[in-house]
Design goal:
5 strands; single chain; 31% helix; 112 residues; 32% strand; 3 helices; globular
């Protein structure tokens, strides 16, 4: 199931957007797959912030999907969302940042 965010004007500055994405890279919410940045979260509002950050940096969100439900704790299930975005620049600073501080798996990937 693919979801869409309504475009709305957001006045986020590029340096702030870059700091937010760097934070998500360190917390393993954002990974890099090929030419795309993949963001996974259980918070739908975070998808809107991710979309605003990508737009502020000149990129675009390609897709937003509902992956399924995951267990948080013993008795609570939440919906996991995945957003895929492109920054249109293969040598963007965030790609180098991900190489240095990022990971190949998100925090929601199954642990062995």
């Amino acid at each position: 199931m693919s979801l869409a965010l309504a475009p709305r004007p957001v006045g986020m500055l590029p340096p702030i957007a870059e700091k937010k994405i760097q934070s998500w890279i360190r917390s393993r919410h954002v990974i890099c797959l090929g030419n795309f940045f993949v963001f996974e979260t259980v918070d739908y509002a975070a998808l809107e912030r991710f979309s605003a950050s990508i737009n502020a940096l000149g990129g675009s969100v390609v897709s937003i999907d509902m992956i399924g439900k995951i267990w948080i704790g013993d008795h609570r299930q939440v919906v996991l969302y995945r957003s895929r975005a492109s920054l249109h620049t293969p040598h963007h600073d965030l790609r180098h940042y991900w190489i240095k501080y990022g990971n190949f798996k998100t925090r929601f990937d199954a642990q062995p």
